[in-house]
Specification:
The longest helix is centred in the first third of the chain and has 26 residues. α7 crosses α8. It contains eight helices and seven strands; from the N terminus they run ααββαββαβαβαβαα. The chain is α+β, with helices and mostly antiparallel strands and 202 residues long. The N and C termini lie far apart (87 Å). Strands 1, 2, 5 and 7 form a four-stranded mixed beta sheet that branches.
């Protein structure tokens, strides 16, 4: 009985071994290092070797994948950065591990607060990538990134992100999450249309 089980197991290994070579001949170079080849090896029809040879090959990142947050900015007609964040602090309040620190800007003449963050820090080693900050932000100013290759030697120098390191353009967000970006754009357009309609009625 035990001998049969061992032979069956070796038979499966041997089948995968030969299937790999047969598929290599069928697919050629397309089986490796191409999106089509990786998609095939992820499918139920895959035969032989289906291991992804990371880092030369990478699995496609799903749109809903979330990693370290980043701050979104828009560009005005002059090409200047317009940061969406108003330093309201909601993201810091809802953050379960409390890894976000914000300092609001103040007007140097009056000393009154200005709705722009002077400092914004996220400790990415503490961040649990839950996405609460992005979910609760009322201004769509903070979003979850797809960049997961963050290994460094010095944690304190590299893994406490400041405002400049966190800032990324809205075009970058549109690129990594096109469907979500379109939904948000449509929702904003609908909201603005309702506001305009309400003003006309008055």
């Amino acid at each position: 009985m035990y001998g049969k089980g061992i032979l069956k197991g070796l038979g499966v290994t041997w089948k995968h071994f030969w299937d790999t070579y047969i598929d290599d001949i069928k697919w050629g170079k397309k089986r490796y290092h191409t999106e089509e080849g990786i998609a095939y090896r992820m499918s139920k029809d895959a035969r032989g070797l289906f291991t992804v040879q990371y880092p030369e090959e990478r699995l496609p990142t799903p749109e809903e994948f979330r990693f370290v947050p980043f701050l979104v900015y828009d560009e005005d007609e002059g090409g200047e950065q317009v940061i969406r964040c108003t330093s309201c602090g909601i993201c810091a309040k809802v953050c379960p591990p409390q890894c976000i620190w914000i300092e609001r800007s103040t007007n140097p003449k009056t000393g009154r607060p200005v709705p722009v963050p002077a400092e914004f820090y996220i400790d990415v080693d503490i961040c649990m990538n839950c996405g609460f900050c992005a979910e609760f932000c009322p201004f769509d100013a903070i979003k979850m990134d797809h960049d997961y290759e963050l290994a460094v030697y010095d944690r304190l120098t590299n893994n406490i992100y400041d405002r400049e390191k966190l800032l990324k353009p809205a075009a970058y967000y549109d690129g990594i999450r096109p469907l979500n970006s379109q939904k948000e754009f449509d929702a904003r357009a609908e909201k603005e249309a309702k506001k305009a309609a309400a003003k006309k009625k008055k």
